[in-house]
Structure to design on (306 residues):
């Protein structure tokens, strides 16, 4: 497969694009969110972050909405999140998203503004030598589970009151479950972060189930110190794969797909304030021919460490 070599050379986490019925193929909404590298282990964090994605629809007979051609989808996702440690080996995280989705068509446009699916994550720290002075290489290994709650809206309609596709909805209408492993190793100012997330989705009341997803990344990072401020530069790659969706126990043909993306990020630590930004750009994709393609992904965030 063409992505095996790309994955060996590259490097995570987040998102894919899939289709459906109001128009037969529609852009990928997004119940996931890119975590990236979140250092300061054993410290509590409260933060806000924003993510932007654009999808361009190909000109096929499937990318129509009652005769109106679907051109572009824009996804704006804001999120409150927190991290806390009830025990030195147990990490809890929570995410509360709010989405603004915009669709441009030849005969009109649709905008959806609503809450998304909340997520709760629990990780167990299997290995943590990050603070040890006895080892040259500092290592951390965490594993855990995430539960996605069906709190988001998932039956919104377009400007003609037609039901929008599941991928365009802020929520899924169903519970989701994700298993993950996160490993970080570093020596002096250099380090490597590797993670893998596998998600299983359940069926909502509309008898629609999103395909299971694999999201994995490998990021090389380096820290910089300028006076009293600390910075971290990260670069690497992301692999995202989704199986086909299922509706009424029937596999939907024009869904699923695989992406390999290049990643570059900058984080700044200004006392207790944490700022971060990243950009991800597709290097290669393997999608159904009528599948809308992601152009770029951008993210910004701020957090308070306490």
């Amino acid at each position: 497969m063409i992505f095996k070599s790309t994955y060996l050379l590259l490097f995570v986490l987040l998102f894919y694009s899939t289709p459906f019925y109001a128009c037969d193929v529609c852009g990928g909404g997004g119940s996931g969110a890119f975590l990236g590298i979140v250092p300061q282990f054993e410290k509590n964090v409260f933060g806000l972050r924003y993510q932007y994605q654009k999808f361009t629809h190909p000109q096929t007979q499937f990318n129509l909405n009652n005769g109106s051609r679907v051109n572009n989808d824009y996804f704006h996702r804001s999120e409150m999140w927190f991290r806390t440690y009830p025990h030195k080996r147990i990490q809890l995280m929570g995410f509360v998203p709010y989405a603004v989705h915009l669709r441009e068509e030849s005969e009109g446009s649709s905008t959806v503004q609503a809450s998304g699916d909340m997520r709760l994550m629990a990780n167990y720290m299997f290995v943590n030598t990050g603070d040890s002075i006895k080892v040259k290489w500092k290592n951390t290994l965490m594993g855990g589970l995430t539960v996605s709650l069906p709190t988001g809206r998932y039956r919104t309609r377009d400007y003609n009151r037609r039901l929008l596709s599941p991928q365009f909805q802020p929520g899924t209408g169903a519970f989701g479950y994700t298993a993950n492993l996160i490993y970080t190793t570093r020596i002096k100012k250099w380090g490597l972060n590797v993670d893998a997330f596998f998600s299983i989705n359940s069926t909502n009341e509309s008898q629609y189930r999103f395909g299971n997803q694999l999201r994995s990344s490998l990021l090389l990072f380096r820290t910089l110190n300028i006076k009293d401020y600390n910075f971290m530069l990260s670069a690497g790659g992301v692999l995202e794969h989704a199986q086909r969706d299922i509706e009424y126990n029937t596999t939907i043909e024009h869904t699923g797909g695989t992406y390999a993306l290049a990643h570059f990020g900058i984080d700044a630590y200004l006392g207790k304030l944490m700022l971060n930004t990243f950009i991800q750009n597709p290097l290669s994709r393997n999608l159904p021919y009528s599948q809308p393609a992601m152009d770029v992904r951008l993210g910004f965030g701020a957090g308070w460490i306490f």
